[in-house]
Amino acid sequence: QICLSLVKLLFYLAHSPLGSIVLLDFQPRQFVMVDGNLKVTDMDDASTEELSCKEDNDCTLDFPTKSFPLKCSVAGKCEGINEKKNLFNAYRYFFTYLLPHSAPPALRPLLSDILNATGDLRYGINETLRAFEKVLHLYKSGLYLQKRPLLLKDYISLKGFRTVEGEDYKCWPSYSHLGCLLSIHSAEEAAAICNSQLRCQSFIITQHRTWTGRPLASFQSSWTDLIPDTNAVVYIKRSASSGERL
């Protein structure tokens, strides 16, 4: 969410009515989330000035670890230098820390492509935004899910119940520090996740959703202590419930 919101912000800055705007003091502390959107807290260090040049050699974009040669336009300006400076700063301060770690395995190659393309400045902001929106579409639609045997048949579902909240086993990247709370596309995906975790015996799906509209599922090592909840469904492994009365 942070990375996509940042890319949308940089897209606006690159195409603003004032011209391409560069953030001269590009640091994470300069941004804040407001209603799910990333905002710049201080525009005093923003500029529409683009570096003047006489030849291509005047247009090297330097960073501590990399340098990028740019073109000198016929207007005597370094082409796209503001946009590229913003984008590489987004790569080194945000993308490298946030992108690779929390996506479903099937989407990680696409995010790695974005990471590599922005890190080499092969993508401009337009291509970067399109790439992010493609990943978001796959993520929200569930099209990234690989065809696999149907696993939900191995679970018993109990509508209108959930387990008592408490600390349980942890997983990554969980939305809760008390246990394993993940976003899912469907109960079928949740069953696949539960099957892949050694300690998982049940999972609960409620009406809580993430910013993309995906439901949240809580994965648990037991299914005892059920309490009524009209907005929840508990799924229990048949192997875990065998011999027990539901």
TrEMBL record:
<dbReference type="GO" id="GO:0005576">
    <property type="term" value="C:extracellular region"/>
</dbReference>
<dbReference type="InterPro" id="IPR042983">
    <property type="entry name" value="PKDCC"/>
</dbReference>
<dbReference type="InterPro" id="IPR022049">
    <property type="entry name" value="FAM69_kinase_dom"/>
</dbReference>
<protein>
    <submittedName>
        <fullName>PKDCC kinase</fullName>
    </submittedName>
</protein>
<feature type="domain" description="FAM69 protein-kinase">
    <location>
        <begin position="2"/>
        <end position="116"/>
    </location>
</feature>
<keyword id="KW-0808">Transferase</keyword>
<feature type="signal peptide">
    <location>
        <begin position="1"/>
        <end position="19"/>
    </location>
</feature>
<keyword id="KW-0418">Kinase</keyword>
<keyword id="KW-0732">Signal</keyword>
<dbReference type="GO" id="GO:0004715">
    <property type="term" value="F:non-membrane spanning protein tyrosine kinase activity"/>
</dbReference>
<dbReference type="Pfam" id="PF12260">
    <property type="entry name" value="PIP49_C"/>
</dbReference>
<dbReference type="GO" id="GO:0001501">
    <property type="term" value="P:skeletal system development"/>
</dbReference>
